[in-house]
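The aim of this short unit is practical: by the end, you should be able to scan a pair of folded records and say something sensible about each. We start with the first protein, listed as its amino acid sequence and then its structure tokens.
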Amino acid sequence: MNRDNNRDIIAGRNPVAEALRSGRSVDCLYIAKGELNGSVKVIAALAREKKIPIKEVDRKKLDQMTAGSAHQGVAAAASLKEYASVDDIFALAQKRNEPPFIIVLDEIEDPHNLGAIIRTAECAGAHGIIIPKRRAAGLSFTVGKASAGAYEYVPVARVTNIAAAIDELKERGCWVYGADMDGQTYCSCDLRGAAALVIGSEGRGLGRLVREKCDAVLSLPMKGRINSLNASVAAGILMYEFSRQRSDIRNYGEVQ
């Protein structure tokens, strides 16, 4: 998702397809010459259904539009992706008639990790994600690609202060769980009800003040010689434990 003249350039088959399916305002679909087959043909059909202009262009043009990223022969020019608010996240939970389940990211800097967390959050039924405005990855092209288009469905709110955001979540009825070493074994905790899961930054983990504000700290048992997991992997394991406890998981999607 590159910024070009106040538009987002979305690239890649999954991100473009999900942008179209989600109802995102798309100005134009660009397809590399000779690529109008398979999944690209399905994407073009979606665009035609929504009366979105389609242009066949040289692959070099797509390379230029997407700054040389792996566009898979497809790109779209869309309206800017706006950040949500914390209120939007609670509104989605209310709309689904579910207790809020929110992911809070304490300075996740790797856009691939952020994209992977957004993708898992969408699959695990989280209602939204909160990230800080500074010292953290934002909604970039790389994040959109890594999320496989899931960022179209998960509200992402950006706040000035994560510690203050945690205070607000607690005031609104959420029990806040941090993920860090030396906490309770994650599967021994009751994770039902309104909850927020806080994931710390790569390398540093949770900040001191953020950890102190958590109602409980969850840990994953380490059986090997390495004493930590990648942030997005740890987040995925914990999100699905929340999801499992909140409701029986009977629907399994395709692994890509």
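Turning to the second protein, read its sequence before its tokens, just as you did above.
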Amino acid sequence: MDPVSGLMAARRNEDIALDMMKFIASTTNYGKTAATSAGFHGGAENKSEDYATHLLELYSRCLETVNGKK
């Protein structure tokens, strides 16, 4: 396999992992706190940095799965 086709295959895996991460995050509310009702705020608020960290971890797991490492 030449370097160009290897690079294209790696990019394809990254795209697949990104799509997988988006799907999982949107369908499961991954990394978000549950919605509270009537103004009661029962848990610790998730900061945007925490949410981003959760998404990056999820992306890493998805990429490992697509690459066949898990």
